[in-house]
Amino acid sequence: MASWLKPKRRRIYLACFVAHFLVIVTVSCRESVWLVARGLTLLPSPLRSYSERIETRLLSIAPSNAVRSSFLTYLHAAGIERAYGYFAPNVPASYRLVFELHYPDGQTEYALPLVTSAAANLRLASLLDEIGRTRHGGLREYLVKMLAASVWNAHPEVTTMRAIFESLKLPTVAEFEAGERGTYDFLYVYDFSRRVDPP
Amino acid sequence: MRGVKERFAAFLFPAETADWIGFLRIGLGAQLLLYALSLKSDWLHLFGSRAAAIASGPLAEGLLNTQSQWIPRLNWLVALGGALGVAEGTVLAFIWYILLVAGCGLLIGLFGRTCAITGWLLHLCVAKSGGLVSYGVDNFMTIGLFYLMLSPLPDRYSLDARWRERLREDRHLLGFFRRVLQIHLCLIYFFGGLTKSLGAGWWDGTNFWRALIRPPFNVIDPEVLVRWKFIFPAAGIAICVLETGYAFFIWHNSTRLPWLAAILAMHIGIGLAMGMYLFALVMIVLNVAAFGPGHAWSRRGEEDVDLAEDLALNST
């Protein structure tokens, strides 16, 4: 059964439509501007400084807390809080976190963060990307500690642990054909020891 | 001016059959089901808050608070369970089962609206509390479930329509929600393609190669891949053109089917070559629901019925 919506209802749908897509376009434009402003694209430097100015202006639009919270809640609820530039403008580096486990008898073992399924492994890679991307040393250490705790849980007899965070330098096609298979560059190291509660 | 307004209204509220919403419901039901099943063995490990958990719900939720305290999250449900004396692990397991049930409900179309709302809300809670371990698939599932829960349900293929409720198909409202999904997909691909085009690596094939050998997406042995190196630049450019051009070529009758087929082939390729099966599935579901039935292909006689209805509406 077809029915033509009443004009008032149609106007409400139209207003929601306009607001919804205005937000999507703004969020997507902001990401593109952000990429240009940071010199991550092919675009020349004059455009870079222009983009920086636009980005500063976009960031200066800060409504009051309640309005801002409602707005951001809607963005998250509708899945439109971020732009869609996956693997753009370039494919980022890959990261690896290796744990060096030290046992009381002097034995040393190496372990990777634990997940059992391929689906969870994709999610773990997202977490490693987050650790590699963040500029906040405290957050990075917290995230590494969190992964260390999960490994510790699986190896309770370990006394001390060293977490080594590395980025993978992917070979180009030519380098791969010349026999190079990618190298891990050391980025950060953290040492953890189990806290022993007094008897 | 009035003509423009009428044409815009006709564009925004076209008469549509329920085929697309039936496909979206079934597709997202399957997606929700596979999402829950694929994470079954790691569910508590990923989303719990104890030492064994890797995603640290409290940290992710703390980061969420910097944006808004009203964004749905697992902690609300865990706290509710706690108030009733239910342990966190039990609450999380219960959420997993509810997601599974919501997926099944959507798949067969039983309690469709309830399942769509429940699926959207619980998935959103999991995706936000597990924000540190989320990736593109969560974003697109949220988008799909959000539109599904707002769209006119039940559709004619659901068990709800057959057993429980009288079918109330408003074809123009169905058309409006399909248009929203279509335009959203156009923006997704346009901006995705545009930002890729701004990277040098997509023009010389470097990024295509890097995407396929980057762990954990390195499903295909690089030794095999490198034999096909001559297609990398063309494949990289093709991805940029396909994505950016989607917003333009998907609307024209003569280019719609080939463009849709190419985009679907790209997502099948991503699923098989990079191991991102869930991501591929949700993108295929959204694309086919948006531009498949009634657009890229029609059932016999369907176009005639649509045309007759539009003509009847225009004459009233």
Topology:
The complex is a heterodimer of chains A (199) and B (316).
Chain A: H1 7-37, H2 45-60, H3 65-78, E1 94-102, E2 108-111, H4 118-133, H5 137-154, E3 160-169, H6 173-177, E4 183-193
Antiparallel strand pairs in A: 1-2, 1-3, 3-4
Helix pairs in contact in A: 1-2, 4-5
Chain B: H1 2-12, H2 19-38, H3 43-47, H4 57-65, H5 74-83, H6 88-108, H7 112-129, H8 136-150, H9 159-164, H10 171-197, H11 206-213, H12 222-225, H13 232-249, H14 253-274, H15 277-291, H16 302-315
Explain this structure:
- The complex is a heterodimer of chains A (199) and B (316).
- Chain A is α+β, with helices and mostly antiparallel strands and 199 residues long.
- Helices cover 50% and strands 17% of the residues of chain A.
- Chain A has 6 helices and 4 strands; from the N terminus they run αααββααβαβ.
- Chain A has a 4-stranded antiparallel sheet with strand order 2-1-3-4, with helices on one face.
- In chain A, helix 1 packs across helix 2 and helix 4 (118-133) runs antiparallel to helix 5.
- Chain A is extended.
- Chain B is mostly helical and 316 residues long.
- In chain B, helix 10 packs across helix 15 (277-291).
- Chain B is globular.
- The model of chain B is unreliable at 311-316 (pLDDT under 50).
Task: Kindly summarize this structure in a few lines.
The complex is a heterodimer of chains A (199) and B (316). Helices cover 50% and strands 17% of the residues of chain A.
If strands are numbered along the chain, what order do they take across the biggest sheet of chain A? 2-1-3-4
Oligomer: heterodimer
Order of helices and strands of chain A: HHHEEHHEHE
Structural class of chain B: mainly alpha
Structural class of chain A: alpha+beta
Number-wise, the strands of chain B total 0
Largest sheet entry of chain B: none
The gross shape of chain A turns out to be extended
The largest inter-chain interface, given as chain pair and residues per side, is: A-B, 77 and 83 residues
Query: Strand percentage of chain A, roughly?
Result: 15-25%
| Mean pLDDT rating of chain B | 90
